[in-house]
Design goal:
By secondary structure, the chain is an all-beta fold. It has no helices and four strands.
């Protein structure tokens, strides 16, 4: 899990169960592969991804359904429509 306040650091927490697009309040509420992020005043679970501007570590994770991968720190990003 990432820390929204410190996106280049990982945080050990149990994964939540809220799916992508669900309203959330805390980082640990979202299902694995998602993060609770506020965009334009709306806080919900966003899928994590690999922005084109960052080096790929492991496998590249892409967005789908017309979403764009926005950078979150220097190691990852999140999908937004």
């Amino acid at each position: 899990m990432l820390s929204v306040d410190h996106p280049d650091e990982t945080v050990c927490e149990c994964a939540g169960s809220l799916p992508e697009g669900s309203a959330c309040e805390r980082e640990y509420e979202c299902a694995p592969g998602n993060e609770c992020i506020t965009v334009a005043g709306v806080t919900k679970c966003h899928r994590l991804c690999t922005p084109d501007s960052l080096p790929v570590v492991g496998s590249k994770i892409s967005c789908s359904n017309g979403e764009t991968c926005h950078t979150l720190g220097t190691r990852t990003g999140f999908c937004v429509k």
